[in-house]
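During the second year of the project, the team shifted from modelling isolated chains to modelling whole assemblies. The rationale, set out in the original proposal, was that interfaces cannot be judged from single-chain predictions alone. As a representative example for this report, we include one of the complexes processed in the last quarter. Its constituent sequences, exactly as entered into the pipeline, are reproduced here:
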Amino acid sequence: MSTDPQPTGHDDPAASARGTELASDYTVSLHYDRRLYREDIRASIAHARMLGRQGIVEEDEAAQIVDGLEKVRAEIESGDFPWKPELEDIHMNVESRLFDLIGDVAGRLHTARSRNDQVSTDTRLYMRQACDDTVTALRTLQSAFVSAAEANITTVLPGYTHLQRAQPVLLAHHLLAYFEMFDRDATRFAAAQESADVLTLGNGAMAGVPYPIDRESVAEELGFGRITANSMDGVSDRDFALEYLSAAAICAMHLSRLAEEFVIWSSDEFRFLSLPDNYTTGSSIMPQKRNPDFAELARGKTGRVYGNLFAMLTTLKGLPLTYNRDLQEDKEGLFDSVDTLLATLGVTAGMIGGARFNAGRMRQAVESSYVLATDIADYLVGKGTPFREAHIIVSNLSDRLNADGRFFKDLSLDEFRVASSLFEADVLEIDIDSSIASRDVPGGTSPTRVKAALAEAKARLKEAGQ
Amino acid sequence: MSTDPQPTGHDDPAASARGTELASDYTVSLHYDRRLYREDIRASIAHARMLGRQGIVEEDEAAQIVDGLEKVRAEIESGDFPWKPELEDIHMNVESRLFDLIGDVAGRLHTARSRNDQVSTDTRLYMRQACDDTVTALRTLQSAFVSAAEANITTVLPGYTHLQRAQPVLLAHHLLAYFEMFDRDATRFAAAQESADVLTLGNGAMAGVPYPIDRESVAEELGFGRITANSMDGVSDRDFALEYLSAAAICAMHLSRLAEEFVIWSSDEFRFLSLPDNYTTGSSIMPQKRNPDFAELARGKTGRVYGNLFAMLTTLKGLPLTYNRDLQEDKEGLFDSVDTLLATLGVTAGMIGGARFNAGRMRQAVESSYVLATDIADYLVGKGTPFREAHIIVSNLSDRLNADGRFFKDLSLDEFRVASSLFEADVLEIDIDSSIASRDVPGGTSPTRVKAALAEAKARLKEAGQ
Amino acid sequence: MSTDPQPTGHDDPAASARGTELASDYTVSLHYDRRLYREDIRASIAHARMLGRQGIVEEDEAAQIVDGLEKVRAEIESGDFPWKPELEDIHMNVESRLFDLIGDVAGRLHTARSRNDQVSTDTRLYMRQACDDTVTALRTLQSAFVSAAEANITTVLPGYTHLQRAQPVLLAHHLLAYFEMFDRDATRFAAAQESADVLTLGNGAMAGVPYPIDRESVAEELGFGRITANSMDGVSDRDFALEYLSAAAICAMHLSRLAEEFVIWSSDEFRFLSLPDNYTTGSSIMPQKRNPDFAELARGKTGRVYGNLFAMLTTLKGLPLTYNRDLQEDKEGLFDSVDTLLATLGVTAGMIGGARFNAGRMRQAVESSYVLATDIADYLVGKGTPFREAHIIVSNLSDRLNADGRFFKDLSLDEFRVASSLFEADVLEIDIDSSIASRDVPGGTSPTRVKAALAEAKARLKEAGQ
Amino acid sequence: MSTDPQPTGHDDPAASARGTELASDYTVSLHYDRRLYREDIRASIAHARMLGRQGIVEEDEAAQIVDGLEKVRAEIESGDFPWKPELEDIHMNVESRLFDLIGDVAGRLHTARSRNDQVSTDTRLYMRQACDDTVTALRTLQSAFVSAAEANITTVLPGYTHLQRAQPVLLAHHLLAYFEMFDRDATRFAAAQESADVLTLGNGAMAGVPYPIDRESVAEELGFGRITANSMDGVSDRDFALEYLSAAAICAMHLSRLAEEFVIWSSDEFRFLSLPDNYTTGSSIMPQKRNPDFAELARGKTGRVYGNLFAMLTTLKGLPLTYNRDLQEDKEGLFDSVDTLLATLGVTAGMIGGARFNAGRMRQAVESSYVLATDIADYLVGKGTPFREAHIIVSNLSDRLNADGRFFKDLSLDEFRVASSLFEADVLEIDIDSSIASRDVPGGTSPTRVKAALAEAKARLKEAGQ
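Output from the structure prediction step:
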């Protein structure tokens, strides 16, 4: 906490309660862009070194600038940096302090660059790391799913469609569905990272710069894979941020689906799941409550992740080339989506890691249901009944059983044969296990396939470096 | 700034750069809800007094609680309050401190209320004030428009459709169009306030409370117009916040239209407008620049205001009754929209207040155009030509003039008569002033009507207490 | 179906599959704006009559135009109207047909008006009616809730927070929570109607018109309460549509919450509810399924209603005054939200009307739970225990019971007294009914209060003309 | 148009005007999903063939089904198909007709598949083609930009930041900025296609199917690159649609930026651009108008493309596994975004293809401005002045010139030297051409770099098969 600079007033309850802000504060971004200090200093150092190498500034001037920038970084990290909100942003704070520390030579740093390409470079550096962090968090979450699936490889529960019991499935199969979703998410964040991985320094105000700079070497030092191909596009392009925000929205949607299941499964009526104690909370008024607050918050935070995407799309709509100050609005929502997503991925991994699944309740839910109806219809199809006709026969049968409070397993062969003379003794062998085993197709829920899917999931994680 | 408590880490650049957050932080709301301290304490005091009056707690216990709460408020306002992020929210911080100050009797405060109705009451108190503040800011802005209109009552500019010069209008008329937009905005915020103006305390966890509380007296003390009619609805209703967010989105849209005009009118090509110096900024690289940054930011911030609305709509979608922790996500976006809107309204009033309109450029734009075409067509209609035919005649005429670089005022009567024999000498009297004067219908741009509209605008502001 | 004109190709599967559209189709709006034919003709008739009254056209010309317009309307309604997509919109189709029917005098109709104020007037007429229809549909739905509440005035179920059983409530109380939501919705649509209820005709292209028109008389004939005060604002104002779309989004959110409850309550695990047969569907593959498809669609359609709001907000962002062709995009989303909302309100009323609530399951859910915990804690508070301490005692107690698979009703007085010596014999009298009866505060769930709320709900509906 | 089936009432003006819809219509999707008839039949044919190959149905039965399906397709394409809205969707219409044509054997087609995986397969086939079409349209648009850039390789205009003249650039450079945006768009649509390119058939209701199907061979016949790995994920995954919608939103944003420039550049004040006649329209009232309606609509349609994305994100939020009827809402918005985007890309290519750029006006805008200020400051930097100091000197200089209505080219060397003694005679050589030539860095606007960029752009298009 020691590095926290003077607050800029945005979290001051008194100021906030007044609900007012001076006009002069309107353009200030320091309260959120100071988190870019590492990226800003790193990019400036690379720029300064290149200016020196190219002879645009003297080598020793470049060295002084680099030294000064490193001192600035140390001051920030030790908490000694004298933040000045009146300088508006991280860039001017760093640069101004550089003047204090090394004098007028600091003025040479801004040679051959503009504020626009500096901001853009910082944001891209940040984004690249955020994509890395997000993919890592996704891989961790996927690992937690693999572990949970492995631990529940024989647990049976009803698969649901329309929140109605549909067909029996293995819990491991259900859990691996989420593995697939998060796998696609990881692909999208990797693509967003690829889009961010382009150096913008050198675009200048938007026409390029009139100095013999070496953009490729700066890119190399900063680890960028490419450099921008058009300076006007470069200063106004925020596609990489939109890609992250879009991928985050889809990922948040996945997390909201899981959270919904956590909430429903935690209900007294389902009782499929006990969330770990440190992911539930009590009630200020009702002493008996163990609420799935973390899952609810994970679901609720979908809102802000969607909202941040829409906010940036709105901001960018209809802007003429090239830079417009509207673009300053690109960062807070992005930071918020990154922070929210990383936190939610972590919390979700914690929940899945500590979840206790109630295999007894799940099996009971399968048994006291008609989830074998499809199997019985398929049995008739196997005997030559067209599928549509078999469907009608079994539908009527299950309706009658339901009216009597009975299940398929309670039926005698004779009763089966009233419904269709094609039923034979082997219909009585249809049970939960045979049903699950019969879905023996790639992607299906049979134990063989699920085990194969687990092995495949582990292999993919291994390949991803987990 | 002295009241700023220990930061909760959310603005710590080092923490942020790590992009990680401990699971235990996931449910913390103190960093944003502490701004509700006044509302929280005010509502608790009203609740405690009622408990005393009703004999639910002893009168002297109630008095101790009230005293303690007032001390807590004083501590917060003097900056001496020991904020504890680990207590998660403003409510527990206040309550815990109350225990420190007055001992176990503090435990009686939470009798006959739940955290849910407490939070809801605080938010409604905040919202009520925010609506007041917003309407006040709108009235101030409207006053600035009235002043600008009054100062430009004879200035003529082209009215635009499709950003093409269409017909001459008075600048005052153009400015008063915004007066009308902001007037409708004020009506919407007043409606949002009406929706917020309902006491929720007494709903308990969601079924009501089993104590003989007097909700009406609490409502009266807190200035609420009504009390909620159904406890289950009461704890989960956030319509009042959505109404504010919707009204804010529409208002931000209006502000974005104005900002767009400020930006376009400030361009070298238009030069209709010079924004005040303190609302423009220079460039870090281009020495000649005077950029309309404030207008651009006002336009860009439309994004976050839209995003906050969409975020809350998303969060609320599909939640079963009653309270779900998702609802904790109702505040940050709301606070952000209120802060953004108030700041933007203030900045916009500042811009319009200091704007210098370039009447010469505006008139020149009218003169070197064909904006009298409609008048000339209408002239022919007056002579008996069906409108559609007149339209074609004048369209062809303006095309020919345009090809020659001439304007209607350059035409002789003979030339007019080549186009239509119905033209007579009085067609030459059609000019900018006659055109404007002829729009003499309610809502039209004729000087008489605009003066009447100005008078009406002032009367409306006066009625609104400005 | 006979009135359906030649399709404009937008639903042609072949055309769609090609995924292409000729550039010339890009501006066509006929396929959606032809539904405004009644409004368009009605407004034109009012305009023509006024032109006649004011002597702007001859009285007999006005009469011819009115006759012709009535013929056009009859043609459309009988299906004989020769629709021409190449004329792009409803307005040109009507006007062109008018020329066919009455000759050149048709050209006088467009005197003193522009396409912009014509479109705006049509849309406002449509909107006014749509608000009426929506409020009516809401009132019908509220009536269905009142009937369902009345029929379930003694049914008890667990009230939920966090989808966890919280406290016992009357089902009627739960249902009336939705009555309140829809009541607020009705208020918002009434406000939207008020905003739409303003005549725009007379604004001309945007400066007003140079004819001695009588706007007030046109407003009166069309039933508008007011006329626009500023012509430039008038042609570009779409606030009324945004207000409808915002109110629709909030209403759709309410409907999605109800639909979520329908889906959850229909699950095998809850079985609180049987939806009427005509609101459930089977499965193409699983013979046993009875799926709550209508409720799911009602929930899913929240998406399009939110989307339509954001579409229009996006379209309007940053448009300079006055009319821009972007505004043509104001109608499809609006029509879709109106259609979607009316259909969903109707379907929801049908579902609630035919729903069978399973009172036995609901009571069982209350009994096999710890929802009396708050009551027992409150009992201790009544004996002098501070609330916070009572909360802890009962929390521990319910934990132990839960571990043993027992409930509060299974506890002897001695066992109670182990937890706190303040428990006395009357603690054994705490039961579901006493719990519910004790929430005897305004808005609470006690039978007295719920009956009063029902009476109040009926009175409000009666006042609303239901 | 001949293939257009009986309309289902959704475009019937009379029905629409009533604003009501029967409950029985609520679940109907035929009016929009019939456009999937090709995909539906194609997938069914592949499925039937596989069933035959695997011996799940008799080979001759499979052949009959395939024949029947081909007849159905022929009927639809010839317009003879008897559409039945009461059958709700395209799938049941096709299947029901198949029964008419080939009798009960039709019932075997639905063996080993469910409606859910059928719908998903159809949508993925559609999506794959839509991505292809979109990339093709983007490439065509990029080609138009390359042509326009090539034709304007020597045209100079002011580059803008904040809509203020900033630095001189080549028009070709400005145009190629858009080439880059559309290049990134193409990458995103290719990624969306990759996500769609996965066979879902075989997932059954959600557990897989109990038949020895050969999913790989079906994938091969339908050209899918992969098959889904988890059946529960497979039936409920709509990520591929969200990816398209996200990419479409970003692309629409790019198009809106261009459209905004078209509108601004077409204004009388800028006059940088004359849009082709068939992309402008007149006014119903103002005879002189030539409005950029197509550009405005292109900008306005950003709204619906954003709205469709948010609609689907909203619909998917919080859905438990697996299929829920909410998912039926996945198609209309998707179709609308595809149609809108393809149309807008086409219209935009038409506009850029026929646009006439006014090189004279553009150069004049450069000349009567201070866009050389950066060059002059850089000159001083070259002489040893720190950048920040040079910036201040030139800023003051341009202020003074502006006050006098003069430009840098009007300054004598003596006047320069008053500002700084470092100015020498060669400062007078700084002009537009030298300024542009000096931005000789990768991505910069110097003629050399722009020519290289053009060559690179052509190469990329060639590689993309254009």
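The two ends of chain A are 31 Å apart (CA to CA). Residues 116-153+169-356 of chain A form a domain with the Fumarase C; Chain A, domain 2 fold (CATH 1.20.200.10).
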